[in-house]
Amino acid sequence: MPAELSPIDKAKFAAARRAVEYVEDGMRLGLGTGSTAAWMVRLLGEMVREEGLRITGVPTSTRTADLAREVGITVIGLDEAKWLDLTIDGADEFDPQLNLIKGGGGALLQEKIVATASDQMIVIADAAKEVAQLGAFPLPVEVIPFGWQTSRALIEETLVSLDVLGRETTLRMNGERPFVTDEGNYIVDLHLNRIGNARQLALVLNQIPGVVENGLFIDICDVVIVGQGDGRVEIR
Ligand code: 5RP
Q: What residues bind substrate, as annotated (predicted)?
C-alpha cells in the first residue's frame, strides 16, 4: 500500500487490491471510472509490467483510457472486444441488493454499457457508499443538450407522478458552463433523498424523450468489495 494515504484512500486502495485478485491471464476487462477505479487500473498496470499479466481493457471514459495507456494496459473499444469477462468499477452508493447509484464522475453511460456487456461486474467502494436505501446521493441522469430544459421539466413531472420525496433537480456544471460527458451530453442530478422503487424509477426515467441513461444500476452488479479505513475488506 502506498505510504501517506488518508483512511478513505486506504479503503479505496484495499478494495481495488482485492478486486484485481479476480483478474486472470487473457481476460478482457471493463475498466471503471473514478478515484477508486483509478487505483484498480494502476494495480493492473503493475501486474502487466511486473508479472507479465496479459489483459485487454475497455475503458469507460477518456480519463480511464488515458490512465490505462499510461500504466501499460492494452486498450481496445467495446465493439472490438464484443464481450467482457469482468468489469471492475466504483459506485456512489450501493444497497443490500447490490443495486447502485453511479455517475458521480459523469461516466454512467459508458459504465452501464460496459458493465452490461460483461460476464461479471465487481464494484469496489469504501464503506461510506453502503446504504440501506438508495437516494441520498443525487441520481445522475444523462440528457442530450437539444431541448435539455424540456427533458428536465419532463423529469420533474415524472417525479411528481411517482410521488418521490425529493424533487429538486440541478444541471451539473463545470464552472460557468454545463458539464459535458464523453458522449457530448449534459447531466441533470436528481436530489431525491430516498428512492422507494429504484427499478421502477430507472425504467420510467429512460422513457422520457431526451434522456439517454440514468445512474441506477439494477441487477447489474454481482459482488461489492467494501474497503475499510484500516485496509481490511468485506465482500457483499
Ligand atoms: C463515475 C462513477 C464512479 O464510479 C463513482 O462516482 C465513484 O467514484 P469514486 O470512486 O471517485 O468515489 O460512477 O461515473
A: 33-36, 89-92, 102-105, 129
Tell me, using a 6 A CB cutoff, whether residue 32 lines ligand 1.
Answer: yes
Residue 12 parent element (H or E): helix 7-19
pLDDT band at 162 (very low <50, low <70, confident <90, very high): confident
> What's residue 167's pLDDT?
86
Strand residue runs (E) in the chain: 28-31, 56-59, 74-75, 84-89, 93-94, 100-101, 118-126, 139-143, 168-171, 173-174, 177-178, 186-191, 211-214, 216-217, 223-227, 233-235
92 CB under 6 A from ligand 1? yes
Residue 175 has pLDDT above 80, yes or no: yes
Contact 159, 85 (CB under 8 A): no
H-run or E-run covering 16: helix 7-19
Gap from CA of 198 to ligand 1 centroid (Å): 19
Closest alpha carbon to 198 in 147, 146, 149, 132: 132
Q: What is the DSSP letter of 192?
A: -
Express each pLDDT in 85-139 by its tens digit: 999 999 999 999 999 999 999 999 999 999 999 999 999 999 999 999 999 999 9
Q: Kindly give, in sequence order, each residue whose CB lies less than 8 Å from that of residue 206, ignoring residues fewer than 6 positions away.
A: 213, 214
CA distance 90 to 109: 14
Is the per-residue pLDDT at 3 higher than 90?
A: no
Q: Which atom of ligand 1 is nearest to the CA of 90?
A: 4
Q: Counting atoms of ligand 1 from 1, which one is nearest the CA of 106?
A: 14
Dihedral pair phi/psi, residue 45, rounded to 5°: -60, -45
Residue ID of nearest Cα to ligand 1 atom 1 = 105
